[in-house]
Amino acid sequence: MELFKLTIHELHEKLVSKEISAKELAQSVFSRIDDVEERVKSYITVTRDEALAKAAEIDKKIAGGESIGPLAGIPTAIKDVMNTEGIRTTCGSKILGNYVPVYTSTAVKNLLEEGIVMTGKTNMDEFAMGSSTENSGFFVTRNPWDLERVPGGSSGGSASVVAADEAIFSLGSDTGGSIRQPAALCGIVGMKPTYGLVSRFGLIAFASSLDQIGPFTKDVTDCAIVLNYLIGHDSNDSTSVKIDKPDYTKALVNDLNGIKIGVPKELMAEGIDSKIKAVIENSLKILEANGAVVAETSLPNIEHSLSAYYIIAPAEASSNLARFDGVRYGYRVPDAEDLIDMYMRTRAEGFGDEVKRRIMLGTYALSAGYYDAYYGQAQKVRTLIMDDFNRAFVDYDVLVSPTTPTTAFKIGEKVGDPLSMYLSDICTIPVNLAGLPGISVPCGTVDGLPVGLQVIGKTLGEEMMLRVAYSFEQSFGWSEKPKL
Amino acid sequence: MEYESVIGLEIHVELDTESKMFCSCSTRFGEAPNTQTCPVCLGMPGSLPVPNKKAVEYVIRTGLAIFCDISLFSQFHRKNYFYPDMPKNYQISQYDIPLCIDGHVDLEMEEYATTIGVTRIHLEEDTGKLLHIGGAGRIAGADYSQVDFNRAGVPLMEIVSEPDIRTPEEAKAYAQKIRAILVSLGVSDCNMDQGSMRVDANISLRPVGREEFGVKAELKNLNSFRSLQRGLAYEIERQTKALQNGEAIVQETRHWDETKNTTSTLRTKEYAHDYRYFPDPDLVPMEFDQEWIEGLRAELPELPDERKERYMSDFGLPAHDANLLVETKATGDFFEAAVALYGGDAKTMSNWILGDLTYYLNAENVEIDDSEVKPAHLVEMVKLIDDGTISGKIAKEIFSEMFKTGKMPKAIVEEKGMTQISGEDEIAKIVDDVIAQNPDAVKEFHDGRERAFGFLVGQAMRLTKGRGNPQLINKLLKGKL
Question: Which of A46, A179, A194, A239 would bridge with A190, disulfide CB 3.0–4.6 Å?
Fold first, then answer.
């Protein structure tokens, strides 16, 4: 049986009933990795030995009659932006090419304690800056649906790994769409929780006020299961929220009677591929058929989202990435003349072009005399965008839109044109600026490539958001898989 | 032309918390390098800061003690600059909304009283320490440098004064007063040797009577109150000369050299950093309850000014004595312990503490807490004077011995046979000898020269090796002459 094709909830039943062992499951996934990884190139690091040892532990538990949680024994890939003690963590950058952390990020730790079997660390755009995974300091990851195309980014490896069945689920991080955009482009489910719901401790920061960890899964049910164990207050993260943990699987009801869904017209306007619009309009009909009331709404200020984002995110990044200086860890130029020479050449050689571009942008935006015009102004715009969302959520339970303006583009197509690359996140960035939860679910294909439907929830409105996504998924009945 | 100096101080104080500002590492001083560290204070990728509530409370208590307005809303900013002692290459500090603003400190100088405004008090994290190997011990030219991050992340409070200080003496008095207040509050040990209190001074000159400020220099490396005073005095002299010669003062940072007694340029304004301050997105803004702040205010301990008032009203001390006794908390504590033990005149205790004890402490560079002489020593000695066992003169010798050895005065008296000679017969015999041996002086005395009497007393004291009861000698000598 091709176990690697199954979902978390399907595999959990088989593990509990002892139909399969965790070891068999892990071996199945690793045989899949052996089969396709050379073509897809999802992983920076594969942790086969550790994974098999962990699977054996889980099997021992099951054999000993211990009850196991839904994630126990499930092969899981982790984006290489999250610290894993004793396992190289590169953040997709040469500057951390040899970096082995001394601690594990809270999110990963939470899942490890639930018994996940970590298969490895996935490729990404360097420091999560990019929308195609072409900015990785190591190699380009390919879209399993078309190996000539990008998987999206920055969590491209974590998306392709699930789409290609090289892991049952994975974790990514989303600063401007880095989970939802690659999930859409790879035809899987990807979700960004409300800012503060998942601890950022141990997540290597790109833009602290926007970063959030979330899951890539094969369906919405798996997404709810993972979310149950991912969240929780963390005293190591001052921005972590304190809430009573809900059981998100309870929100998965295939009934949208009386649910009000708004469609922001700005996200269905110019710039969105007309074929994608058609797919989305079809999706709206399914939602209506399930009982939802769908209407057009407006978020007038989100046209400024990209401008605000490309001030705020680089500004924070310019400061967050200052610590990569060759003094304490990571790459250091071997033959520096003096301190300044060490700083300059370590960073010149260690960082790639896009990272340097954003550090320079951010440094400029924060400089004396420019702060008010750039960073100050961008924060005001951010507040206006939040206000827009708040107003819309007076009338609607969730908002929906396409996740991306186009399907997966060709490798190399946008590398020379950063602005057009930035535009691929136009539908997802406003959600990060407002700190809201968002999920992308597969809703069809255009020319054989997947399209994602984005559902945006209120602050901490994950349950309603998951309910809408689940209902859509159940009725739409997506079953297509890439042919590898 | 006559110039007036305009001085403002920036005082950095390491707070006496158990753990660091943004992590749970210990703040202990003197441990092996890099043993008091964790991913947070080493700036490891992905680590996040969590504020130390105690440190925030300490700063607010300080603000309350020096009459500041406490910000009900405050936040941390990042101050960005590269240096190898800074793990993140930014320092978490405060910028436009510090915890406390608009306070003041009252000073009583010898001849006048004045008030120094406090602009702000803010909270930040300390940096690590660098050790440069080879070269001249500075980073430029060193073979290599070592970094110790034990200090990185220790909570650091910065108290910024208004440019209200006019003399080096005022600067010293202000810094000492701040120290006395902080030690009374228990928020810092303010140990300048270990660097837990560090003072930078901004100083400029302007013609007397002019409103606008002149161009300032910032003085660094002022590692004691003495260097603060001397560094400023040097800088006033240097700037005065420059201005008198028609030279322009350059805005710069200058380094005080304790051994050479001069200041020299460290860096000029062209090299000033653009710190690119922005609110730290890893931390949420701090909001405080007025009620909580009032609670802190109510719990403030007795502060130096209140203590001084009490010494004057309860013990009847003159203002001069009271002022000096409250200069450090330890001195006041010593005084109060001594008074309680003694039960007699508080002024006597004050005289000994401000006189002999202070003299020896300064001469030997010893802190009062580390002194061999404890209140019990002093009180026992004064009681020996009171009951006539020893004279005041002998007491001074005993004091010196106590300071050196820590022995109790009674033991010293016995050991050295220093008991006062108060027997009337014994003294009468000595007085007779003195009169017999010094006919010239006796004649001079009868000729009306008072000085001769003093000489004769001195001779009697010499014969008793200082142990003669001076009152008795006086009395008997007068009678016999």
Answer: A179
Report chain A residues whose CB lies below 8 A from the CB of B145. Answer: 339
- Tell me if A322 and B276 make a contact (CB, 8 A cut-off): no
CATH of the domain at A154: 3.90.1300.10
CA dist B480 and B474 (Å) reads 10
B283 and B352 co-located in one domain: no
Q: Nearest CA of chain B to the CA of A366: how many Å? A: 5
In this prediction, the answer to ipTM > 0.90 reads yes
Considering the domain boundaries, does residue A25 fall inside one?
yes
Domain of B127, in residue numbers: 3-295
For A180-226, the pLDDT digits (tens) are 999 999 999 999 999 999 999 999 999 999 999 999 999 999 999 99
Question: What is the tally of structural domains in chain B?
Answer: 3
Residue B360 and residue B306 in one domain: yes
Say if residue B429's pLDDT is above 90.
no
Q: Residue B45: which of A83, A209, A235 has the nearest Cβ?
A: A83
Mean pLDDT of B91-109: 96
Are B133 and B251 members of one domain? Answer: yes
Chain segment B122-149, per-residue pLDDT in tens: 999 999 999 999 887 778 788 889 999 9
- B381, B416, B451 - which closes a domain: B416
Asked if B66 and B87 sit in the same domain, the reply is yes
Give how far Cα B222 sits from Cα of B124, B233, B259, Å.
20, 12, 12
- Within a domain: residue A126? yes
- pLDDT bin (cut points 50, 70, 90) of residue A479 is confident
Instruction: State residue B460 phi and psi, 5-degree precision.
Output: -65, -40
Q: Which residues in A lie closer than 8 A to residue B39 (C-beta atoms)?
A: 101-103
Cα-Cα-Cα-Cα torsion B42, B47, B52, B56, nearest 10 degrees, comes to 90
Residue where the block lists tokens 């020319």: A447
CATH code assigned at B471: 1.10.10.410
Contacts of A83 in chain B (CB under 8 A): 44-46
Tokens of A42: 């999802």
B271 touches A at CB < 8 Å? no
* Residue A448: inside a domain: no
Give yes or no: residues B10 and B54 share one domain. yes
Question: Per CB distance under 8 Å, which residues of A are interface residues toward B?
Answer: 82-83, 89, 91, 96, 99, 101-103, 105, 200-205, 207-209, 235-239, 315-316, 318-319, 322-325, 327-329, 338-339, 343, 363, 366-368, 371, 375
**Across B226-237, average pLDDT:** 96
List Cβ neighbours of B121 (8 Å cut-off, separation of 6 or more): B59, B62, B63, B66, B68, B98, B99, B100, B101, B103, B157, B158, B159, B160
Is B80 part of the contact surface with chain A (CB cutoff 8 Å)?
yes
pLDDT tens for each residue of B283-334: 999 999 999 999 999 999 999 999 999 999 999 999 999 999 998 899 999 9
Shortest CB distance from A83 goes to which of B46, B49, B88?
Answer: B46
- The answer on B306 and B393 residing in a single domain is yes
Query: Who's near A299: CB < 8 A, 6+ residues apart?
Result: A264, A266, A267, A385, A388, A389, A392, A430
Residue A334 lies in a domain: no
How many structural domains is chain A composed of? 1
B149 Cβ partners below 8 Å, 6+ apart?
Answer: B34, B36, B37, B41, B42, B87, B128
Cα dist. A111→A105, A232, B382 in Å? 10, 12, 73
Q: Note the pTM of the prediction, 2 decimals.
A: 0.90
Could you tell me if B308 and B406 lie in one domain? yes
Whether B120 and B42 map to the same domain: the answer is yes
Domain range for A133 is 3-258
Residues of chain A contacting B274 with CB distance shorter than 8 Å: 367-368
**Three-state secondary structure readout of B402-425:** HHHHCCCHHHHHHHHCCCCECCHH
